[in-house]
Amino acid sequence: GESKINPSGKLAACLNKLPSEWVNATVMFWKRPALKLKRDRVNDISSYFLNEENWTPVFSQLEQDEIALLKTFIDNDGVFKYKELVKKFGNEENESYWWTERSPRSLVGRLRFKGFLFVGITTIKSRNYKIGLVPKDLLAILEINL
């Protein structure tokens, strides 16, 4: 079951919907403090990402193919139908749920793991679609820096 996702949602809201296991893996990847509450870990990651002073270290952790995919999201206003996303950029079917033990290797999986890309269900004209999303507040920073 994918959770509902708001296409105009902010980074913290998207992170909050993830399982703790995934938030913890993202916290570990970015070497952020292991705060006790998930909510606090989420707020820490999102304020870390949204603070421009951190963009040099953040961008140095992105691979070329990840940057290329993020640029494609910028051109698409941050949203992709999931089907089109995996058709163009490869699927993530073989990824483990336990990201803290085995981080994703696929392109889509790596961007989810790093906290840039979210997948969920949204309703467009009363139909449900699975989408890939780069949250608007994060997208704004990517537009300036990529």
The parts where pLDDT drops under 50 for at least 5 residues are none
Helix/strand structural class? mainly alpha
Overall outline:
globular
The radius of gyration is 14 Å
Number of strands: 3
Oligomeric category:
single chain
Please report the distance between the alpha carbons of the first and last residues. Answer: 33 Å
Q: Give me the strand/helix succession.
A: HHHHHEHHEEH
Strand count, sense and closure of the main sheet?
3 strands, antiparallel
Mean pLDDT over the full residue set: 91
The helix count comes to: 8
What helical percentage do the residues reach? 40-55%
Largest beta sheet: what is the strand line-up?
Answer: 1-3-2
Strand content: 5-15%
